[in-house]
Automatic annotation (TrEMBL):
Keywords: Methyltransferase, Transferase. Residues 80-126 form the Methyltransferase type domain. The keyword Manganese does not apply. GO terms for molecular function: S-adenosylmethionine-dependent methyltransferase activity. The keyword Transcription does not apply. Transmembrane segments: none annotated. Its EC number is 2.1.1.-. GO terms for biological process: methylation. InterPro entries: Methyltransf_11, SAM-dependent_MTases_sf. The gene is yafS. It is an enzyme of class 2 (transferase). Coiled coil: none annotated. This is SAM-dependent methyltransferase protein.
Length: 249
């Protein structure tokens, strides 16, 4: 649906400066105002210097918030190459991917990095454009003169993103579809919670927001016995078995 730009990451500043994009960001802030307060913990990091203000990220329920942007010329707190997050493993409580999957060349690598830096109960909020929306189809029309959003890779659909997250030990909890054009015209639809009549057309919304939580199964470490301890245990079991064996004919 989109025309992809070659490279490791792409810049969307030209499209975000258009009036329609600014209106889209206003509605997207409404969706974030419902999802971000559900985030808990100490550290929350937004990946991707999207067009939202810092006050939007401050509405998260975490104590500290930072932004990671693409490249060294971004206005975020820290810049990175779009592949390797400059964060320690298991050091983050919540991550917000503000259309970051569309702006990097390898979204699978970025998701694996998100799973690495999140702790065992970390939360993940993903904002992504719907590749099957009417807006996505209009982006490739040759007669358009306005700046277009040209992603670096194909944005995944909500169902495909579900599969990716479950492979990384994430459990999706909430899905919200929203957008400017058909079918919501600036509104949003909480999938599975209200407006049953809109479920049949929700698949063509302009964008969606997904809230997921990491579900890591606890692993019990196996302690290796000492070299002499294994032999003594085997001899003790043999003696105990020889005293209690009863034969019945």
């Amino acid at each position: 649906m989109f025309r992809f730009l070659p490279g490791q990451y792409t810049d969307s500043a030209d499209w975000l400066a258009t009036p329609r994009a600014r209106l889209f960001l206003q509605y997207e802030r409404r969706v974030l105002a419902q999802l971000l307060p559900n985030l808990t913990g100490y550290r929350c990091v937004q990946i991707g210097s999207w067009g939202h203000e810092r006050a939007t990220l401050a509405s998260a329920g975490t104590l500290c918030q930072w932004q990671l942007g693409f490249g060294s010329a971004c206005r975020a707190d820290v810049g990175f190459d779009g592949r390797h997050l400059p964060l320690a493993s298991g050091s983050v409580d919540a991550l917000v991917l503000a259309h970051a999957l569309e702006q990097v060349a390898e979204p699978h690598v970025l998701l694996r990095e998100c799973a690495r830096v999140l702790n065992a109960r970390g939360q993940l909020v993903i904002l992504a454009f719907n590749p099957w929306s009417l807006w996505a189809m209009r982006q490739r029309l040759p007669a358009r003169r306005a700046p277009r959003f040209q992603p670096c890779s194909a944005p995944p659909s909500a169902s495909r993103l579900y599969d990716w997250l479950r492979l990384l030990e994430f459990e999706p909890e909430r899905l919200v579809r929203y957008g400017l054009g058909f079918p919501f015209f600036g509104g949003y639809h909480r999938v599975g919670e209200d407006r049953r009549s809109a479920r049949c057309i929700a698949w063509c919304a302009q964008s969606y927001a997904l809230l997921a939580r990491r579900q890591v199964a606890p692993r019990t470490p196996i302690r290796k016995p000492l070299p002499g301890q294994r032999k003594r245990a085997a001899v003790g079991l043999a003696r105990q078995a020889s005293h209690h064996v009863r034969c019945r004919r």
